Structure to design on (215 residues):
């Protein structure tokens, strides 16, 4: 009997959307977390083809999210319920998004990062990057790529503590990462206080897409 293949490492992905993106926003019962089947939301968005419509999500029932479309005059032209998996008071666990939670942040042009990921992924699915005062060395198995701050391959946005710093992330979700990178002109590598690596991709007019990798 053949042994089953191990599952790829778990990766947490977040989309952080600024409140300025919303025309209106209200939360009357404090911080709430809603869990829903993303496929249900994708199906409804895929069927939204008319221009000039705005999307409204309302949670008034315990296990139901109301999906509504409004025209430019504010009138509802379509409304349908979506079943929630669950909802509860609190915030998403796992990542502290405050500025004080980062030890180091490095910004890399999206084009350079995309080429880096494509090259490293042909050698191994796990990447380790060591950052010194002069350079960042990315390694995947026997493949090594060196970036220098002098040639503008990256910019240090924030740095606390002492060199060297180590970033670790996997490429099992390479397609998801590259799809996100295609929406931006830059990528930020962050190291959290607990040494986890966060790949952050800012999306203009929306917020940012963030991938958090476990140790």
């Amino acid at each position: 009997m053949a042994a089953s293949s191990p599952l790829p490492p778990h990766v947490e992905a977040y989309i952080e959307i600024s409140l300025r993106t919303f025309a209106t926003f209200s939360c009357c019962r404090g911080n709430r977390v809603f869990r829903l089947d993303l496929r249900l939301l994708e199906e409804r968005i895929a069927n939204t083809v008319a221009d000039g419509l705005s999307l409204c999500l309302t949670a008034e029932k315990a296990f139901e999210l109301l999906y509504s479309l409004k025209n430019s005059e504010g009138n509802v032209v379509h409304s349908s319920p979506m079943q929630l998996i669950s909802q509860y008071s609190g915030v998403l666990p796992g990542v502290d998004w405050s500025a004080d939670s980062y030890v180091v942040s490095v910004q890399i042009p999206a084009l350079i990062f995309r080429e880096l990921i494509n090259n490293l992924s042909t050698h191994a699915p796990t990447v380790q990057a060591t950052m010194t005062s002069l350079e960042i060395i990315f390694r995947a198995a026997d493949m090594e790529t060196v970036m220098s701050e002098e040639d503008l391959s990256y910019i240090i946005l924030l740095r606390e503590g002492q060199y060297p710093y180590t970033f670790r992330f996997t490429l099992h979700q390479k397609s998801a990462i590259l799809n996100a990178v295609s929406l931006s002109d830059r990528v930020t590598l962050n190291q959290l206080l607990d040494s986890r690596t966060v790949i952050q991709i800012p999306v203009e007019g929306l917020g940012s897409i963030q991938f958090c990798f476990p140790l």
About this structure: Confidence is low (pLDDT under 50) at residues 1-5. The first helix runs from residue 38 to 46.
